[in-house]
Design a protein that fits this description.
By secondary structure, the protein is an alpha/beta fold. It has 15 helices and 15 strands. Strands 1-2-3-4-5-7-12-13 form an 8-stranded parallel beta barrel, surrounded by 5 helices. Strand 14 and strand 15 form a beta hairpin. Bound molecules: 1-deoxynojirimycin.
Length: 467
């Protein structure tokens, strides 16, 4: 039995590029992924879940199945097709209609401004490595706050800046497809922290109403076995992937223990990090004003040191056992056969979520509150006799909600949980066979089938509200 606070938010998460489809409709401008996916030729972002047209169906289902809030992102190039300059009125009208439909159904929209989909020309000019992207992002955010502020009261600046930085420059599964360039990834993280901070500061300075936060992917790192050098590797990974950007958003500067590890990595890679004095002013100001942290959590890692030629294989096909992660001077991930993992080699470890939240509370006492903004199971769901019996998803979600329940009783302010994902959708690096949704989507007919997990979710959400 799960016992969560009455006012706990039961949300469903989506992202514009993964659900909307219609990537060239109504004046939408190109994004970095359009070109990258075409070149790869593995799968197309169209039709995705055709949310551009089907959103009333998904919102009606959300209401019926106890979803109180929805994470959506605004596709920057529906608003400004080139990233800056000319405005696309049809894009503006679309998001007004979408938010109105949310509110009509009693569903609170939590809106992300950047969810991996940088406008193409900004991407081609260096993406987050170019400070001009930061300026363009701030202008776009300001427009959105002014335009949609009467409908939207919960704003998220950037989704998973770590996934962007590492996907782009270390794993190489995001455009521009570069591998093992850690200094670039570190600079891209810092620049996103500055972009985030500037947007938070602007939101507060202009007195826009509502709350603003950021979404980080946070995974706990543990020593593969109890050896001192494995502890050091776990610490290096934690600092690089988690602490660096948590320091930025909550301390407003990078603490000495953080910079010790980051400088070591930069030295080994003959790289440097540029931090302008102005950047630190923005970070310090924003750290005092951020309203919430969105925590995306799927898995944790067990690591040992690695010194040698880096090699990462991203399992983007669902062939279990194919993932490899060895990053020179950072660490190697070791899989313990006793700990379950998904077909995409994601280690299922709810304790990692609890430990992460406790670490945040202890290291950043000013953290305010946390929403788990993504968590869920990617699986190869099948329709059998018109039904999708996804018991494994129910089990996955239940053990993670249990970890949240435990966190709340340890005094951690966790206010809600957004299942990834609301409906089945397009996955950036896995295409269409990795399904996460409460609602099954037949991508040919665009018909929805609520899965067994949707029924379970409805009962849980409704009984929680009754107390
Ligand atoms: C994180 C990202 O925000 C989302 O876009 C992605 O599809 C899910 N995780 C699952 O990988």
């Amino acid at each position: 039995m799960l016992s969560l606070p009455k006012e706990f938010v039961f949300g469903g998460a989506t992202a514009a590029y993964q659900v909307e489809g219609a990537t060239t409709e109504d004046g939408k401008g190109p994004v970095c992924w359009d070109v990258f996916l075409k070149e790869q030729g593995r799968f197309s972002p169209d039709p995705a879940s055709d949310f551009y047209h089907e959103y009333p169906t998904d919102l009606a289902l959300s209401k019926e199945y106890g979803v109180d809030a929805i994470r959506v992102s605004i596709a920057w190039t529906r608003i400004f097709p080139n990233g800056t300059g000319e405005l696309n009125k049809k894009g503006v009208a679309y998001y007004h209609a979408l938010f109105a439909e949310c509110l009509k159904n009693g569903i609170t929209p939590y809106v992300t401004l950047h969810h991996f989909d940088t406008p193409l020309n900004l991407h081609q000019n260096g993406d987050w490595l170019n400070p001009k992207t930061i300026d363009a992002f701030v202008a776009y955010a300001d427009f959105c706050f002014a335009e949609f502020g009467s409908q939207v009261k919960k704003w998220i600046t950037i989704n998973e800046p770590a996934s962007i930085a590492f996907g782009q420059y270390v794993v190489g599964n995001f455009p521009p497809n570069i591998q093992y360039d850690l200094p670039k990834a570190i600079q891209a993280m810092h620049n996103q922290m500055v972009a985030h901070a500037k947007v938070v500061n602007l939101f507060k300075e202009k007195d826009y109403t509502g709350e603003i936060g950021i979404v980080h992917i946070l995974e706990s790192y543990y020593p593969a076995e109890d050896a001192v050098e494995n502890l050091a590797a776990a610490n290096t990974c934690n600092v690089l992937y988690n602490q660096f950007m948590l320091d930025a958003i909550y301390k407003g500067y990078y603490d000495n223990d953080t910079m010790f590890v980051i400088n070591e990595i930069l030295k080994q890679n003959d790289g440097k990090l540029t931090i302008l004095p102005m950047d630190l002013t923005e970070l310090a100001k924003a750290a005092k004003q951020i309203d919430f942290l969105g925590l995306n959590y799927y898995q944790s890692h067990f690591v040992q040191p690695f010194h040698g030629e880096s090699y990462i294989h991203h399992n983007g096909t669902g062939e279990k056992g194919t993932a490899v992660f060895r990053l020179n001077g950072v660490g190697e991930r070791i899989y313990n056969p006793a700990i379950p993992k998904t077909d995409w080699d994601w280690v299922i470890y709810p304790k990692g979520l609890y430990d992460m939240m406790l670490y945040i509370k202890n290291r950043y006492p000013n953290y305010q509150k946390i929403y788990v903004t993504e968590n869920g199971l990617g699986d190869k769901d099948q329709v059998v006799n018109g039904e999708v019996l996804d018991q494994s998803r129910i089990d996955y979600v239940a053990i993670h909600l249990k970890a949240i329940e435990q966190a709340i009783s340890s005094g951690i302010e966790v206010k809600g949980y957004f299942i990834w994902s609301l409906q089945d959708m397009f996955s950036w690096t896995n295409g269409y066979n990795k399904r996460y949704g409460l609602f099954y989507v037949d991508f040919d007919s665009q018909k929805r089938i609520p899965k067994k997990s949707a029924q379970w979710w409805k009962e849980l959400s409704e009984s929680t509200k009754k107390g």
